[in-house]
Amino acid sequence: MGQIYEEFIKRAGELADIGHAQALLGWDQETYMPSRGAARRASSMGTLAGLYHQKLTDPNLVRLVEELQGRDLQGDQAVNVREFVRGLDRALKIPEDLVVEMSKTEALAHEAWVEARQKADFAVFQPWLEKLLAQKKEVADRVGYQGSIYNALLDEYEPYARAEEIAPVFADLRARLVPLVEAIQATGKMPAKGVLDQEFPVAAQEAFGRQVMADLGFDLEAGRLDISVHPFCSGLSRDDVRLTTRYAPGQMTDSLFGVIHETGHGLYEQGLPEDAVGTPAGASVSLGIHESQSRLWENMVGRSRPFWSHYLDTLKNCFPAQLQGVGLDAFYAAVNQVEPSLIRVEADEVTYNLHILLRFELEMDMVEGRVEVADLPALWNERMEQYLGVRPEDDAEGVLQDIHWSMGGIGYFPTYSLGNLYGAQFFRQAQLDMPDLMGQIGQGDFSPLKKWLNDKVHARGSRLSAGELVQEVTGEPLQARYFVDYLEEKFGALYELG
Ligand code: ZN
Hints:
Layout: H1 2-31, H2 38-56, H3 59-69, H4 75-93, H5 96-119, H6 122-143, H7 150-154, H8 163-187, H9 202-215, E1 223-227, E2 233-237, E3 240-245, H10 252-270, H11 287-301, H12 305-318, H13 320-323, H14 328-334, H15 352-367, H16 376-388, H17 414-433, H18 437-442, H19 447-456, H20 466-474, H21 481-494
Parallel strand pairs: 1-3
Antiparallel strand pairs: 2-3
Helix pairs in contact: 1-2, 1-3, 3-4, 5-6, 8-15, 8-21, 9-10, 10-11, 11-17, 12-14, 15-16, 15-17, 17-21
Bound molecules: zinc ion.
Zinc ion binds at residues 261, 265, 291, 294.
């Protein structure tokens, strides 16, 4: 028994090593690789992906795992086998020719999407999305599912989540968000005007962002910050976490809150259990839990009044000309401006989830066969008007704006909203456990919150599923109300709603 398990862990570790190399190559591709390096890099990554698949589905390993599945395992041994089987199962059930076919389709669909977006013409992308959708349904049928077929796709990003459980939570969320957005809109207030729409020198932006990142507790001996077109966090291991951001003089807060967001992801990666490095138990739980950490730090901490009562003077020292005479109230209001807009990635904290709910609903309808791909643009525009009161002029600022579907990422979007809801529920619990939490943030002392998250969330690795983790940490299943309560309180005061 011991020997079989040891052999299994050794092989799982080798797969993790290949994954580590793949992640590093991927990070380099987005940050430092010169453009002419792309072709050779694609070949190298293709070979590694093949090697990974070969080693994962090696009949000897499959036999080992089957043997272990028949045993009564406890603790991390049980977690490691359970989580490994999840990945193995998918790999065994999806035939190689389908994998190859999908990766070809995704590459071509992505090209078509770029062209469609440039021409603002959904018809260019439509046949490709239809093809991708058919392939995804085939994948779902092969891997199997209970309840909605959507569950098989969701499971890739948010393991163990079920559409039947999240749909009612999202419906609650929508029912309370729409009137909140309307009430804020009716005030006509635009507090960011004259405060944030200025040029902020990039060097000072970088210096300030790096200071905040270090203050929040990101360990720069176990990670770094670089520049990429699309910001991301890549956890090569808990001791090597790569964050990226981007800078533009006219968008100081985009970069700053981007850095805080990625730092939230980075703290999670650095806090993963030390005693489970390189094993499935030592990995993060899901994209939703990952996003809960980034959004918690970005919004509930970084856009809070106490945070800026601590940092505003430092920021003003970085930008004396731009922020002269801007008081705490004005700055706090400015970084929390709510404005319904067409583009998801530019959306504020209040309207953001309505963008996601729309996508989730359309995905469900599409996958379950209630809606034809051809009807997506019209439905998109209709619902944007219904939920946010704005209507896209063309498909580029409507149904074509996101990259996800063009890369086969159907079932990914809900993890963003799940992250916001998990984050709010965790943060409420942190405030109950540490009544002076906001006071500590006002003093620039982030270590109690970081330690709380380390203990309650990060150090558990993937021993619990996302749903179990929320239940364990907060004593309740996931709910929409903690997030909306938080929004109503914060923005009710900011916008003086009755
Ligand atoms: Zn994120």
